[in-house]
Design a protein that fits this description.
Blueprint: H1 2-45, H2 47-65, H3 73-98, H4 103-109, H5 114-121, H6 123-136, E1 140-146, E2 150-159, E3 166-177, E4 185-187, E5 195-199, E6 208-211, E7 216-219, H7 224-232, E8 242-245, E9 252-260, E10 265-272, E11 277-281, E12 288-290, E13 295-297, E14 300-307, E15 312-318, E16 324-329, H8 330-333, E17 341-346, E18 349-355, E19 362-368, E20 375-376, E21 378-385, H9 386-389, E22 401-406, E23 414-418, E24 434-438
Parallel strand pairs: 16-20
Antiparallel strand pairs: 1-2, 1-24, 2-3, 4-5, 5-6, 6-7, 8-9, 9-10, 10-11, 12-14, 13-14, 14-15, 15-16, 17-18, 18-19, 19-21, 22-23
Helix pairs in contact: 1-2
Protein name: F-box domain-containing protein
Biased composition (Polar residues): 10-25
Region (Disordered): 1-29
């Protein structure tokens, strides 16, 4: 049996060789017949046809050198698999290259092809692009100015290396037509390149959500608070809306917290960008008052709160579960007024700033270590003596400052602004303007 099997295999091999030889023979016959016909034509038509024939033979030889022959089916499948792997590698390399480009260039590259457009618009790429900016680049600064006709959002960069540091306009320049604009127009802190613009003095003006990097904005419908004010003409204590992103689903939500000063209760409305509607939250804390402006960090919004006995803590709101939670911190608990302590977000980390009334204007900046624990631990990073950098009296509330940004490249360089005005201590932005640090984004939820 083994001999028969060996003979059978040999016969199959011989049969394959004969088939291959037959194919090559037929190919040579076709070549020779084609050559003969071409030679006959050359005699009749001249040397031009002879040149064409030599070119054709050269191309055939080049093709043979490139191994463009008929492969067995197993080899053809392997080559097809290799081609697919090559395309995937090229896509990965392309992604790594364009990941380092600014948003302005990426918006232009979306018109190259449908494939590029899908890749750049994907949630995965947007998240990677934002993470790369926060890790490797200095933040940009959004300058908000108005001329009583329209809002102008200008992207600027800060030259940390110069002394003193200076702002340089980069663009784009984004004009938002808004009929009701005055000196009370405010802009929220940036959340992944998105900002909220609103008028803190007029509840009749709707909130505007904008992405200056891609020059897009959308006006939100009036909230329940705003409609109630239009009906009752009773203005509540107005606070800054907080924009946050769900770390699980990637959806954006706008949370607006209001104090009821008569009975120490909080009311809260949430605008869900998925359904594009406002809705009330019923599980808000009681017997507390909240600070005016929240911050966002890693899926949570945070406010400083105080109860009737002036005990200060931090109130957190989970964007995903929509649940409130109270945190404590030693620095915050020592506050005597809301303006004597503040919190901010730098590189997705929560910072606490405090000033001591009897310390002659000395401000201390600390970074929180564990935001998920009930008791926040903090490490002191640096202090600023306002008497050395500011001519104002340290007892004046307008001299209280807020930490805006720190430099990744230039150690011990940071940017601060005056509290309640967002105007910088060291720099001189355009008059009547507000400056907000942000990272440019491709996101737009509406």
């Amino acid at each position: 049996m083994e001999g028969e099997k060996g003979k059978l295999v040999l016969s199959s091999s011989e049969k394959g060789i004969e088939e291959t030889t037959s194919v090559l023979q037929r190919s040579e016959d076709r070549d020779s017949s084609w050559s003969e016909s071409c030679c006959c034509s050359n005699i009749m038509r001249g040397e031009a046809h002879d040149t064409a024939l030599r070119g054709w033979r050269k191309r055939r030889r080049d093709d043979d050198d490139d191994d463009t022959v008929v492969f067995p089916s197993c080899c053809r499948k392997k080559r097809k698999h290799d081609d697919v792997s090559l395309v995937m590698i090229n896509d990965d390399l392309l992604e790594e290259i364009i990941l380092r480009l600014p948003v302005k260039a990426l918006t232009r590259f979306q018109v190259v092809s449908k494939h590029w457009s899908r890749m750049i618009k994907s949630k995965y790429f947007k998240d990677r692009h934002m993470s790369h900016q926060k890790t490797t680049q200095e933040p940009k600064f959004l300058c908000l100015g108005d001329d009583y006709v329209s809002l102008t959002l200008t992207t600027m960069s800060l030259d940390w290396s110069s002394m003193p540091s200076c702002l340089v306009e980069e663009g784009p320049f984004f004009h938002i037509e808004q009929p009701q604009i005055d000196q009370f127009t405010r802009v929220s802190d940036s959340c992944n390149g998105l900002v909220c613009i609103f008028d803190e003095n007029s509840l009749t003006s709707p909130i505007i959500v904008a992405n200056p990097a891609i020059v897009r904005s959308q006006t939100l419908p009036l909230s329940g608070f705003q409609r109630q004010w239009l009906e009752e003409k009773k203005k509540p204590a107005l606070h800054f809306p907080g924009l946050g992103k769900d770390g699980v689903t990637g959806t954006y939500k706008l949370v607006w917290l209001h104090n009821n000063e008569s009975n120490y209760t909080l009311s809260c409305e949430v605008f869900d960008f998925e359904v594009k509607k406002w809705r009330y939250l019923v599980n808000t804390p009681c017997d507390v008052q909240a600070s005016a402006e929240p911050i966002f960090a890693k899926g949570w919004l945070y406010w400083i709160i105080a109860n009737r006995t002036n005990d200060y803590n931090i109130l957190g709101y989970d964007i995903h579960t929509e649940m409130f939670r109270v945190f404590s911190n030693t620095i915050v608990s020592q506050a005597s007024r809301f303006y004597t302590v503040s919190i901010c977000n730098l590189s997705d980390r929560v910072w606490v700033k405090s000033n001591v009334a009897d310390a002659g204007g000395l401000h201390h900046f600390s970074r929180i270590k564990n935001t998920m624990d009930s008791e926040w631990e903090s490490e002191k990073m640096f202090s600023i003596d306002l008497k050395l950098i500011s001519p104002w009296s340290p007892l004046d509330i307008s001299t209280l400052i807020r930490l805006k940004a720190t430099s990744k490249e230039y150690y011990k360089k940071f940017l601060v602004s005056k509290l309640f005005t967002s105007k910088l201590v060291h720099l001189n932005p355009p008059p009547a303007s507000i400056l907000i640090p942000y990272f440019q984004s491709l996101d737009f939820p509406l």
